[in-house]
């Protein structure tokens, strides 16, 4: 079963005291101690980011690891990644991340992993990357469009409620035909896809939501998607 969990924001790096989304991701592996590998490429493999990942995931039932493209753990990256149950992509510069992935053939390995049942997940850059298109600040201060890996159809904007320019610019790009219709996701909301279809939306925050954004009959339409709030048990 192919699964992608794309977070608008949240998880250990944004909500270190609220790991509901991270726990949800781990649960989807259907194992008591899944192997989860963090890909911090978009941050330039920042040591502090990696440390925060381990601090969070060592407190959860899993076997955490990470892949640094600047300090390679092995020459056989395909084998290293394909033996994992979950590949969790961090935030940062989407354009630089995709460029490095293509150079190291990580993009093709990720597709192979996805097709073989490995869960792909991530936030911000690690959320945009799975779609055909997205909106990013990778080019500087202003938000611009970017092409992703295309595993999922349409476009995507994370941080839909977390950054004031995200929502209006995402809608503007769709209105002008610069982006296809797509999904906006608030910080704390996650889009869970099975295959290429949206299975459900979950959130770690009571008021976080996700949206389907499209032009219809020459007007902008934003449909709020039903969202399951993951309350602490």
How would you explain this protein's 3D organization?
By secondary structure, the chain is an alpha/beta fold. Helices cover 26% and strands 31% of the residues. The protein contains 7 helices and 14 strands. The chain has helices at residues 20-27, 47-57, 77-82, 94-104, 106-115, 125-128, 166-175; strands at residues 3-7, 35-39, 63-66, 86-89, 119-123, 131-136, 144-147, 152-157, 182-185, 189-194, 197-203, 210-216, 219-225, 227-229. The strands form 2 sheets. An 8-stranded mixed β-sheet has the order 3-2-4-5-1-10-11-14, sandwiched between helices. The protein has a 6-stranded mixed β-sheet with strand order 7-6-8-9-12-13. The model has no long low-confidence stretch (mean pLDDT 95).
Number of helices: 7
Query: Average pLDDT, to the nearest integer?
Result: 95
Order of helices and strands: EHEHEHEHHEHEEEHEEEEEE
Overall shape: globular
Question: Using only CA atoms, what is the Rg?
Answer: 17 Å
Biggest sheet overview = 8 strands, mixed
Quick take:
With 233 residues, the protein is of the alpha/beta class.
Q: Characteristics of this structure?
A:
233 residues; alpha/beta; six-stranded mixed beta sheet
